[in-house]
Amino acid sequence: MNTKRVSTALGTVSVRFETGGAGVPLVFLHGVFLDNTLWEAFDSSLTGRTHLYVDMPAHGESDNVGRDWTLDECVGVLLAVLDAFQVPRCIAIGHSWGSMTALRAASTHPERFAALGLFNMPFTETRGLARLGFHLQKQLTGFKSFYARQAAKAMYSPRALADNPAFRKAMQARLRSRPSIEIARVIDAVILGADAAHTLITTLYVPAHAVVGESDYVGSPPGIVTRTVPGGHISPHEAPSETAEAIVRTLTLASAR
């Protein structure tokens, strides 16, 4: 496994990559408070293709952003990665924030995407009490271990955390490595600042396949064939065999175009 650092408008991002055989490469994007290791069980032997695993801004081995930013700016990050690797067209596999980014990129630049695998994708605005709750949570980002425990409880199913306490510990370690202001900026951009994506979904030209967990807080995106799998909001960890099947299914969608 090799690593390349790519300069973007949201700082330098780290990309692990494996070179596979012929065919459109796959680009993997993770969700908030995770990193590229979310996809470590799904290496290039699954598809026989080149795989790129992106650490999103202010996550993993990528740099802090150092300013306020928006979800739409993540489209530029993804395109910068594709350009840096000279990938004219890819299959994007995203989780949560990564799915939100892939959807927006494919909506504005459909020629760069052969298919989308959208795992646990939020697609509605955060409103009402939920929005107030996230505003209050921003005040807790200074207490990183406590905040990470609460975030893990919200994203993983109770069974996943009971069976795999390392999930919570890893999230705590990741948040401890970041300044509180960077964590707050992620909440602002990805959760509080995200517009509803219904129009993007219903007008999407690129073929897509979606996955949600049984106890996931996101629903099934309208108009996209969706599979419900065991667990909560982090299906690549909680339902690995179903995730592998869905990735292969996304390849089939790309081949059918």
Low-confidence stretches: none
C-alpha end-to-end distance: 30 Å
Give the overall shape.
globular
Count every helix, treating DSSP H or I runs of 4 or more residues as helices.
10
- Fraction in beta strands: 15-25%
Whole-number radius of gyration? 17 Å
Number-wise, the strands total 8
The spatial strand order of the largest sheet comes to 1-2-4-3-5-6-7-8
The structure class reads: alpha/beta
Mean pLDDT: 93
Write up what this structure looks like.
The protein is an alpha/beta fold. It contains ten helices and eight strands. The chain has helices at 73-84, 97-108, 128-138, 144-155, 158-163, 166-176, 180-192, 198-202, 235-238, 240-255, and strands at 2-8, 11-18, 26-29, 51-54, 90-95, 113-119, 208-213, 226-229. It has an eight-stranded mixed sheet with strand order 1-2-4-3-5-6-7-8, sandwiched between helices. Helix 1 (73-84) crosses helix 2 (97-108) and helix 4 (144-155) crosses helix 6 (166-176). The longest helix has 16 residues, at 240-255. The chain is globular, with a radius of gyration of 17 Å. The model has no long low-confidence stretch (mean pLDDT 93).
Task: List the main descriptive attributes of the protein structure presented here.
257 residues, alpha/beta, eight-stranded mixed β-sheet, 8 strands
